[in-house]
Amino acid sequence: MTLSPTSARPLLLAVIGPTATGKSALGIRLARTYGGEIVNCDSTAVYRRFDIGTDKVPAESQAGVPHHLIDDITARGRVPVLVGGTGFYFRALVDGLFEGPGRDDAVRARLHALAARKGVEHLHRLLVRIDPPSARRIMPRDEKRLVRALEVWLLTGRTLSEHFAGTRPPLPEYDVCAIGLRLPAEDIATRVVRRVEQQWARGVVREVLDNLAAGIPREANPFGGLVYRQILEMLDGVRDEAETRALIVRENRHYARRQLIWFRKEPRVIWLDGAGERDETLVAARALIDAHGVTR
Prior knowledge:
This protein has helices spanning 23-34, 87-95, 105-118, 120-130, 132-137, 143-156, 160-165, 185-202, 204-213, 228-235, 241-264, 279-291; strands at residues 2-3, 11-16, 36-40, 67-68, 79-84, 175-182, 269-273, 294-295. With 296 residues, the chain is of the alpha/beta class. It has two domains: 2-96 and 174-203 and 251-295, P-loop containing nucleotide triphosphate hydrolases (Rossmann fold), CATH 3.40.50.300; 105-165, Histone, subunit A (Orthogonal Bundle), CATH 1.10.20.140. The strands form two sheets. The chain has a six-stranded parallel β-sheet with strand order 4-3-5-2-6-7, sandwiched between helices. Strands 1-8 form a two-stranded antiparallel ribbon. The radius of gyration is 20 Å and the shape is globular. Residues 1-6 have low confidence and may be disordered.
């Protein structure tokens, strides 16, 4: 891969969008085409031992493409290919984060106590009134992020959205080419059902039990995410397996809608309609990248 004369800046490719659209498959194929390496853009796939529930790409399916959280990819003459569906991570990388206040244990304790007394959804309702944009991107049961958003507002008098509006990009030297994948809601629903079936077949419940047996506390961050949270509740007798699987499917579909709402607000994203595994999607993505000023 070489940059055309129209751009002397190093390239950062991004494949983003809602869950179950085939981002990982397209990212790997683009990395093979352009001499790239994958950089994670998912808030839960960064954790070791949490593989099945996060739908992490198995080593045997990575097609020889190195996968990283962050590394010196550009310095080695390779192209970083950012892949994932966590819009906050994407925005943090290309637009930057504000230097927010440090944690305040007393404030957090009060917020956690409020969630225990009135339910986590009560925190989300508070955030809806205070900071609607943040409430749209944070899941109603994501207690950790809800607490942080409310903590920032309580400590600074300004919302997360207001803080983010004044940030600067941490990678101004990069030329970002962001491709978004989207599918009709009914296609995502079908793919999510198939994914949950595959997660169960691969042993996601055993993965949870093994991690608990290894001493990973229930309060660990990945246990609060989709799939793992519902499985813990199943193991506690809150609902049976069929109800748990149905709930995971529903929450994934809701999550996909929130992801699409978030990414639609990213002006640099160029959208493709089609699953990442399809050849026609790869052809369209290559055309976009080549038009961006890249030759193979």
